[in-house]
Design brief:
Strands 1, 12, 13, 14, 15, 16, 17, 18 and 19 form a nine-stranded mixed sheet that branches. Strands 2-3-4-5-6-8-10-11 form an eight-stranded parallel beta barrel, surrounded by four helices. The protein is of the alpha/beta class. It contains 13 helices and 19 strands. The longest helix has 20 residues, at about 220-240. The protein starts with a helix and ends in a 6-residue tail after the last helix. Bound molecules: pyridoxal-5'-phosphate (PLP). The site of pyridoxal-5'-phosphate (PLP) has 17 residues, from β11 and α11. Pyridoxal-5'-phosphate binds near residues 71, 72, 113, 293 and 297.
């Protein structure tokens, strides 16, 4: 039955559009002012995505809360935009907590899910007033309890389970003997069962609920059904053992996919696969808040990167197009072979056609290869099925779509490369600088160049 539903959904996968929020004239003008490479973020898309994700779960029989996983993109202006949507912020490190503090984000709107779970870390988290903490090991629970005692706060503890289900995704986060979370019944103390019982017997802690994160860019949603079924068995077991057992929040992590090469289901189509399972949990175990903790879906389509074609060469019927960007700015192109959709925009002040006679006519998308500027074999850009590389000629611009997630945050200085500026188109249509580009001098100093 489940397989049938999945098949139906997969047959009518919705083709998301690339999000072109800027005209060719504006692109030419912005490049004149800021150069290339250049990132552009559309604020309106950020707000729309929050709404789309929330609406996808409208059939859930309880309260729904959207959390933004700031690891996907921690640019302060993007965080400020999401503050307007009153989302919860999902953090994983003290560095991310620093950003949240600087922005004076209400700690009630924070959920902290650490991998390291150190005592010092938890002391700082609780001292800022964050109450909702997700533990992923028994050692983490001990540290949290000690931190709670020192700081004098009773944290609302969630337990990150590793349901150990098979996941079809670009990045899998739940697998047998995996790094994240604890098994339901596995190890002696590192099991969800044991940890929940420990929380109930510890007056320094309050039990809030469960968390799982199955992976990113998930394309088959049966894994949610399997994870919820496994959670249901655990809940039944806990109910038998703990007389006053109940939970208030279930966080089902991220995974909502984004269009790159293949059409993907919408969040609503995705939710429809397992919404009944979620409602069954409400029916059997009482009302709870459902937390959807998304990174990729909320930011990916908000952003475009503009790069310039700076060299070309031809091998009989193949053309290599060399750009002034590389995997130092779009790491997932190399790491995950991410097929970002691309489009050529003509450079209005391009005089190169005066020197080169390439008509480009003999080249189709298939025999044009995009390569980055780095001296590294892996610095090539796979193309999306909807990439249009006609007129991939010297001097023209190339847009990379859907680059808002897991790209800015991976910018790196390999080959002494600098960080490009980031501009935001605000909801009232203004374009503002939200991150300055860095210079070679900045990099030299940062790398210790001024140390005698
Ligand atoms: C715990 C947790 N929650 C949520 C997310 C966000 O996932 P996605 O970007 O697929 O929405 C991640 C991503 O790694 C994560 O580790």
């Amino acid at each position: 039955m489940v397989e049938n539903v999945v098949q139906i959904i997969q047959n009518k996968k919705t083709l998301s559009k690339t999000n072109r929020f800027i005209t060719n004239e504006e692109i030419n003008q912005l490049v004149k002012e800021h150069g290339t490479p250049l990132y552009l973020v559309d604020e309106g898309t950020l707000h729309e995505k929050v709404l789309e994700l929330k609406n996808a779960y409208e059939k859930f029989h309880g309260h729904v809360r959207i959390a933004y996983s700031i690891k996907a993109n921690f640019n302060p202006s993007i965080l400020k935009a999401f503050m307007k949507d009153n989302v919860t912020f999902d953090l994983t490190s003290l560095g991310e907590l620093f950003f949240i503090r600087e922005l004076k984000i209400n700690p009630e709107n924070v959920i902290y899910t650490s991998v390291t779970e150190e005592l010092e870390e938890y002391k700082q988290v609780l001292s800022y007033g964050v109450e909702r903490v997700v533990v992923s090991s028994y050692f983490g629970l001990i540290n949290l309890s000690q931190a709670a005692n020192i700081v004098g706060i009773v944290p609302k503890v969630m337990v990150r389970i590793n349901p150990e289900v098979g996941v079809k995704a670009e990045v899998r986060a739940s697998y047998k003997n995996g790094k994240f979370g604890v098994p339901l019944n596995g190890g002696k103390v590192d099991s969800a069962y044991y940890i929940v019982k420990s929380i109930f017997s510890n007056p320094l802690l309050e039990f809030e609920g469960f968390h799982f994160h199955l992976g990113s860019q998930i394309t088959n949603f049966v894994c949610y059904i399997n994870a919820l079924e496994r959670l249901n068995s655990l809940l039944n077991k806990l109910k038998k053992e703990i007389p006053n057992f109940s939970f208030k929040t279930l966080d089902i992590g991220g995974g909502t996919p984004v269009f790159y090469n293949e059409p993907v289901p919408t969040p609503q189509e995705m939710a429809s696969i397992y919404i009944d399972k979620l409602n069954d949990l409400v029916a059997y175990h009482g009302k709870f808040t459902l937390m959807i903790e998304s990174g990729r879906f909320l930011v990916a389509e908000s952003s475009i990167m503009i790069s310039k074609i700076v060299n070309t060469k031809e091998y009989n019927d193949h053309k290599i197009v060399i750009l002034d960007t590389g995997y130092h700015l779009l790491l997932d192109a190399a790491l995950l072979k991410q097929e970002y959709p691309q489009e050529i925009v003509s450079n209005k002040s391009n005089n190169n056609h005066l020197y080169f006679s390439n008509s480009n006519k003999q080249y189709t998308g298939k025999n044009i290869h995009l390569a980055g500027r780095l001296c590294d074999t892996f610095d090539v850009f796979p193309t999306s099925k909807i990439s249009d590389l006609s007129y991939a000629n010297l001097g023209n611009y190339i847009l990379f779509y859907n680059v808002g997630a897991y790209s800015l945050v991976f910018n790196m200085p390999f080959h002494c490369q600098t960080k490009p500026p980031v501009l935001m188109k605000t909801c009232n249509g203004d374009i503002k600088l939200i991150r300055k580009g860095t210079s070679f001098n900045d990099l030299y100093i940062e790398e210790g160049g001024s140390i005698p």
